[in-house]
Hints:
By secondary structure, the chain is of the alpha/beta class. Helix content is about 25%, strand content about 20%. The longest helix is centred in the C-terminal third of the chain and has 14 residues, at about 140-150. The structure holds pyrazine-2-carboxylic acid (VGL) and zinc ion (ZN). Zinc ion (ZN) binds near residues 58, 64 and 97.
Amino acid sequence: MNINPQKTLLLLVDVQNDFCPGGALAVNDGNAVVAPLNALSRALTGKGGRVAATQDWHGAGHSSFAQWPVHCVQGTKGADFHENLDLKPVSIIIRKGFRQELDSYSAFFENDSSTATGLEGCIKQLNIETVIIGGLATDYCVLYSAMDCRRLGFNTIVVSDAVRGVGQPEGSVEKAVETMKSNGIQFCTSQEILDIIK
Ligand code: VGL
Ligand code: ZN
């Protein structure tokens, strides 16, 4: 694999307290994504790359709370980034899901598939070619983000040890990985990526 760090974005998807153990919509072992993502953030920004983070950011009474437990309510501790996530290298923060009647899994488009979050325009202006994705959850926000990213024409890599899934319905993580792979999304370990960008 060949990537130019200066044209690479690391995208940290929803590494928020509510998706980590103890949170309202906790993903098993969700906090395990933090260490590999911190290592990648540091390495990539050291080589001139950029780091973006998304935040699920719902108003009280958001329409998605019909399907999900109340989570990531704006301004609450549950919506904060995990306390060990290194935010110093993060220069772009995208909040999504803040329209009351519209949910948003993807970092690029809300669930109507047409309302943009602004991330695409932002990273096109930065001449980004490769997007490396990690975070939560593999079968929801990571899946939707990676699929949009690939469709938009970016070289898209998911960090296999820096994602964790919900697994509901059963088999959804395996299905998500298969869908991503069959659409040309690559999977690499954080160590493999560190070795390439060093
Ligand atoms: C997510 C369900 C609801 C996610 C967000 O980050 O994967 N899942 N809101
Ligand atoms: Zn949500």
